[in-house]
Amino acid sequence: MQEFDLFVIGAGSGGVRCARIAAQNGARVAIAERRHWGGTCVNLGCVPKKLMVYASEYGREAEDAPAYGWDIAAKGYDWQHLIKAKDREIERLNGIYVSMLEKAGVQLFTGNASFVDANTLEISSSDLAPNAEKQIVRAKNIVIATGSSPTRLSIPGAEHAIVSDDIFHLAEQPKRISIIGSGYIGVEFAGIFSGLGSKVDWVYRQDLPLRGFDEELRKHFTEVVSHSEINVHASTHPQKIEKIENGYELFLENGKVIETDCVLMATGRHPNVQSLHVERAGIALKDGYVPTCLEDAKTSVKGIYAIGDVTDNLFNLTPTAIAEGHLLAERLLGEEGREWSFETTPKAVFFTPPVASVGMSEEEAIKHHHNLDIYTSSFTPLRQTLSGRKGKAFMKLVVDTQSQVVLGVHMIGTDAAEIIQGFAVAVTAGLTKRDFDRTIGLHPTSAEEFVTMRTLTRQRNA
Ligand code: NDP
Description:
By secondary structure, the protein is an alpha/beta fold. The chain has three domains: about 190 residues, FAD/NAD(P)-binding domain, CATH 3.50.50.60; about 110 residues, FAD/NAD(P)-binding domain; about 120 residues, FAD/NAD-linked reductase, C-terminal dimerisation domain (Enolase-like, domain 1, 2-Layer Sandwich). It is about 30% helix and about 25% strand. It is built from twelve helices and 22 strands. The strands form five sheets. Strands 1, 2, 3, 4, 5, 6 and 16 form a seven-stranded mixed sheet that branches. A hairpin with a 2-residue loop joins strand 4 and strand 5. Helix 1 packs parallel to helix 4. The protein is globular. The protein starts with a strand and ends with a strand. NADPH dihydro-nicotinamide-adenine-dinucleotide phosphate (NDP) binds next to helix 6 and strand 17.
């Protein structure tokens, strides 16, 4: 039986980082993956999604180009071309993940890992390795990094719907798509399919999309969406889906019935714990998640840790899982571990234009700080002046009145994600509004607005 210092279950972003750092520093490390090397982000999430976002933006650019003197027009769209090109790139990335792990000295197991007891795992066949023989391994430390999967609503006809895992391999582009949910995935795919020319019906139960983001930002985002072709059905619940001759009918609580070719449920994700048998190791799940201590990723059982989406500790985002994996590997090697500022994790939603934030929303900030200075700016970006494209950029600073520390930076507009990554350094460093004010702007950009907001929009008192 093989024995390891560390065995990581799941080769997604967090698991790969943890295994690689530990192995590079001399530990005997193994990792098991049952489905895709690189996990959700590389195979069924961030990377293919972003490629699709890029694809969806060219039509709009072709529409705007004549305003700048170009004699071009988009003649049509080839979905199969995109899917094949995307698959080639993902295959390349899978290979990079495998060779990166091997080079670091990590032993790879392809198959499904489950607990026999707190130090013993069984690796059995999986989709990726259907003929794999069972193997038993032992490890001093085990890291659960199995990620999460999309959740389907339990409404009649739910079996007719697809989830985000399916969208990356659709044989045909749906000409009409109904999207349920207004979180990250719902927003992003509403933008992607609208950009690719599909008729999009977007259904969500809140009055504003993107719950959890700054409310004023959400209002401005709704305004941006109103200039798109997307048909919004807000404040309503989906009730059932029925198959009809030419597609499906989606019935809404408000009485509307939408005819569509495809229903996408973008209604959250749940942790991948089904085949792990954590109970054999003595771990009890909490609301379906593996409970861990936020500080050190420890579960209730000595030597077993969990990171990423399978826990419910942090934002379920790739960079936080990577940071958790890195920190855990360093700590297992006896180091203190580098410092990460999880609370100032920036967030972006890749609509066109994107929405991005770092730090506190106004609603969060007022719970912790008595008085706030709020600065906002809304303007038509220079690029849209010649084309006449509608939809304003919006930028907002949330500042603690007393200390003048900038608590939150929020934006909707072209390159918002790229811009907010830079401002995340400022918020992490605890910089003040005075630091923003003494920074010289970079002209002409949208980003310079963040350092030229001189006039207070309003004060807010608790
Ligand atoms: P989210 O949690 O972001 O959004 C789920 C959506 O489904 C919400 O609109 C929610 O409504 C709605 N919903 C949940 N249950 C029901 C129900 N019973 N009936 C009707 N609507 C319902 O999940 P996503 O699936 O969009 O994304 C999953 C996670 O993946 C994200 O939270 C994020 O961590 C990650 N992700 C990150 C991306 C990025 O960084 N750009 C991109 C994609 C995913 P309500 O708001 O009312 O709860």
